[in-house]
Structure formats: structure tokens, C-alpha cells
TrEMBL record:
<dbReference type="InterPro" id="IPR043129">
    <property type="entry name" value="ATPase_NBD"/>
</dbReference>
<dbReference type="Pfam" id="PF00814">
    <property type="entry name" value="TsaD"/>
</dbReference>
<keyword id="KW-0408">Iron</keyword>
<dbReference type="InterPro" id="IPR022450">
    <property type="entry name" value="TsaD"/>
</dbReference>
<feature type="binding site">
    <location>
        <position position="169"/>
    </location>
    <ligand>
        <name>substrate</name>
    </ligand>
</feature>
<comment type="function">
    <text>Required for the formation of a threonylcarbamoyl group on adenosine at position 37 (t(6)A37) in tRNAs that read codons beginning with adenine. Is involved in the transfer of the threonylcarbamoyl moiety of threonylcarbamoyl-AMP (TC-AMP) to the N6 group of A37, together with TsaE and TsaB. TsaD likely plays a direct catalytic role in this reaction.</text>
</comment>
<comment type="similarity">
    <text>Belongs to the KAE1 / TsaD family.</text>
</comment>
<feature type="binding site">
    <location>
        <position position="270"/>
    </location>
    <ligand>
        <name>substrate</name>
    </ligand>
</feature>
<keyword id="KW-0819">tRNA processing</keyword>
<dbReference type="InterPro" id="IPR017861">
    <property type="entry name" value="KAE1/TsaD"/>
</dbReference>
<feature type="binding site">
    <location>
        <position position="114"/>
    </location>
    <ligand>
        <name>Fe cation</name>
    </ligand>
</feature>
<dbReference type="GO" id="GO:0005737">
    <property type="term" value="C:cytoplasm"/>
</dbReference>
<feature type="binding site">
    <location>
        <position position="118"/>
    </location>
    <ligand>
        <name>Fe cation</name>
    </ligand>
</feature>
<dbReference type="GO" id="GO:0002949">
    <property type="term" value="P:tRNA threonylcarbamoyladenosine modification"/>
</dbReference>
<dbReference type="GO" id="GO:0005506">
    <property type="term" value="F:iron ion binding"/>
</dbReference>
<feature type="binding site">
    <location>
        <begin position="136"/>
        <end position="140"/>
    </location>
    <ligand>
        <name>substrate</name>
    </ligand>
</feature>
<keyword id="KW-0963">Cytoplasm</keyword>
Length: 329
């Protein structure tokens, strides 16, 4: 069965196609993302402009995805689209489009949670089956979930303030490295000395599983005011964030008795983070290339998981939700 996935939750118009075999194996056949450049001039996402651009682009992105997969729209067996969380206007574009497509084709429709999509992006790399622990580390989230069984999400810990990706973006701006900050910091860090700028690891000694990155941001600001080398600051900052993410996740995995850990979301593309997780000895699964940041294939993978688990299709009358916690257990 071919499943179409659509994500228009923020400023990326994403459409993907995933194949689900009778044996329950999944394969990404296409993943096309139109990243909106229009927001760069404003230094942040302008919601109404994002919605308009989704409307203008979605037909073309769908066509590209179908071409990449080598299929026609009539070959689709199900459609999945993100219904939250995200920017309301932006969400509604992809959600309405997906519902219309499903109804027109007389195939089932699955509404998908954006974070569930980020987690299932890892299903492109491994046969992902609960139980496992999932760290979603993106531009808007740093959330640790225990997944004791398929579709059940227990919140284990989250950031008290900034998301890790947000901190990367802000520190990159302080260092004059541009946007998005994650890849820019990562590249600069390779040329810097991580010992040059001493930064305190957040929430050291805590017994819980929380994160905090706003203090690091302030420390980075003070360091730039002292005139430190931006590459040294990037290296120190990246190492401190990576250590915090890995240590807390490893402790949570031990606490919950999980051997498999999914690390997903935009920051999961970070090479230093991947290397540090690989060294933990846990079975760490990352999304495949192009599946870390927002995309449609991850939503198709979440749809495939729902179908595989025998979940009923979504009601076409269900709307979008701007604020939607994933925790349900
Ligand atoms: N190599 C990298 N290292 C660190 N951070 C990265 C890297 N690549 C991307 N990022 C960060 O990932 C974030 C974008 O990820 P993503 O698209 O998953 O987030 P989002 O969709 O904006 O947030 P959310 O899904 O929480 O609503 C940005 O903050 C970006 O700086
Ligand atoms: Mg996202």
C-alpha cells in the first residue's frame, strides 16, 4: 500500500510517499520539501505568509513527490496529514488538502501528530517497535517520551525554557553565523576549540530528566561581549548541549529499562550528537537523511504505523489544533 504524507505545520511544505508491505515493512519512496525562504528577511516565521505560500506550493510539491516515487495519485491507498501542533493557518492548508484528496480518492485518511511524525521518521532506518524511549529535539521541542506500547506516549522530561534547536539558532545569531543556526554552529564548531570557553552544563546533579538551555544562551551572550572567538564559542556550546542531551537521555533509558532510543527532530541531524549517542552502547535510531527536519515522509510513516497497528482512520470532520501535547498515557 502507498501512503501519502503531508506536513504544513510551519514554514516547510512537505509531501512524502511511503510504501507499506503486507509483511509490515516500510520504505520511503519519496520525500519532497519546499522550504520557504520568504521568512529570512523577517528573522522569524510570519504565520500568514507561511499559510499563503503553502497554498501556492502544495500542488507542485505533491506532483514532485509522486514523480519521485514513480506513482500516480490514483495509486495511493491512504493519505495522512499533520493536524497539530503548529501554526493554525499553515496546518489547515495541508490538513484540508489531505482530507480532500482522501475523500476524492475514496481512501482512508489519518490525521497525524507532528511529534509522532518526528518520532516515526526513525522508522525509515529500523523496524521501529515499542517499547522504546524517544527524544524529540527540534526547533520547538526538547521532549523525552517513554513509548511502552505502540501509540502510547508518557512524558518523561522536557525543556524548562528554550528548545535545543532554538538555542542553536539564537547562539548562531549571537555569533553572527546566520540561520538556521544548527548547521552553522556545527560547521563553525569543527574549527573551534571546545575547551576555550568554559560553559556550565545545565541542571547537573538533577534526579529528574529535564533540560534547560536559556542559561547557556545568556552565558554565550556574555562570552560574545568579552570578544571570544565565535568558532571556539560554537564548539563549546555544541559540546555542552550534546553532553546535556545525551547524559539525561541515557539516565532516562536506564531508569525506564529501555535499550532502544529514538533521537529525532532537526537537531538529530547534528554530527556531534550522533557520535555521542553512538558511543553510549544503547540501540540508538536516528531518522534517515532529509527526515530530521519537518517533512511529509515522516507523516506518511506515522500513517503507516497507524495502519499497521490497526487504528481506525480519522474522522474527516476533525480540525487542526495549534497546541497539542503528545503525551497520552
Ligand atoms: N546539524 C544541526 N545541528 C544542530 N541543530 C540543527 C542541525 N540541523 C538543524 N538543526 C536545528 O533544527 C531545528 C529545526 O528542526 P525542525 O524542523 O525539526 O524543528 P521545527 O519543526 O521548527 O520545530 P517543532 O517540530 O518542534 O515544531 C532548527 O532549530 C535548527 O537550527
Ligand atoms: Mg518539526
Amino acid at each position: 500500500m502507498l501512503i501519502l504524507g503531508i506536513d504544513t505545520s510551519c514554514d516547510d511544505t512537505g509531501v512524502g510517499v511511503v510504501e507499506l508491505t503486507d509483511a509490515g515493512q516500510v520504505r520511503v519512496r519519496a520525500n519532497r520539501v519546499w522550504s520557504q525562504a520568504i521568512h529570512a528577511t523577517y528573522g522569524g516565521v510570519m504565520p500568514e505568509l507561511a499559510s499563503r505560500e503553502h497554498v501556492e506550493r502544495i500542488d507542485a510539491v505533491l506532483e514532485d513527490a509522486l514523480n519521485e516515487a514513480g506513482v500516480r495519485v490514483a495509486d495511493l491507498g491512504a493519505v495522512a496529514a499533520t493536524n497539530g501542533p503548529g501554526l493554525m493557518g499553515a496546518l489547515l492548508v495541508g490538513l484540508s488538502y489531505g482530507k480532500g484528496l482522501a475523500q476524492g480518492l475514496s481512501v482512508p485518511f489519518y490525521a497525524a501528530h507532528h511529534l509522532e511524525g518526528h518520532i516515526y521518521a526513525a522508522a525509515s532506518e529500523a523496524d521501529l517497535r515499542a517499547p522504546y524511549l524517544a527524544l524529540v529535539v527540534s526547533g520547538g521541542h526538547t521532549h523525552l517520551f517513554d513509548v511502552p506500547r505502540e501509540g502510547a506516549y508518557v512524558l518523561v522530561g522536557a525543556t524548562r525554557d528554550d528548545a535545543a534547536g532554538e538555542a542553536f539558532d539564537k547562539v548562531a545569531r549571537l555569533c553572527g553565523l546566520g540561520y538556521p543556526g544548527g548547521p552553522a554552529i556545527s560547521a563553525a564548531a569543527e574549527r573551534g576549540n571546545p575547551d576555550a570557553v568554559p560553559l556550565k552544563e545545565p541542571l547537573q546533579g538533577q534526579s529528574g530528566f529535564e533540560f534547560s538551555f536559556s542559561g547557556l544562551k545568556t552565558a554565550a551572550l556574555l562570552a560574545t561581549q568579552r570578544g571570544v572567538n565565535p568558532e571556539d564559542l560554537a564548539a563549546s556550546f555544541e559540546r555542552t548541549v550534546v553532553r546535556s542531551l545525551v547524559k539525561t537521555t541515557v539516565r532516562a533509558a536506564e531508569h525506564h529499562g529501555r535499550r532502544t532510543v529514538v533521537v529525532s527532530g532537526g537537531v538529530a541531524a547534528n554530527r556531534a550528537l550522533r557520535a555521542a549517542f553512538a558511543a553510549t552502547g544503547l540501540n540508538v535510531v536516528f531518522p534517515g537523511k532529509g527526515l530530521n527536519t519537518d517533512n511529509g515522509a515522516m507523516i506518511a510513516l506515522a500513517g503507516a504505523a497507524a495502519i499497521r497497528a490497526g487504528r481506525a482512520p480519522s474522522d474527516l470532520s476533525a480540525g487542526a489544533t495549534a497546541y497539542a501535547p503528545l503525551a497520552n498515557a
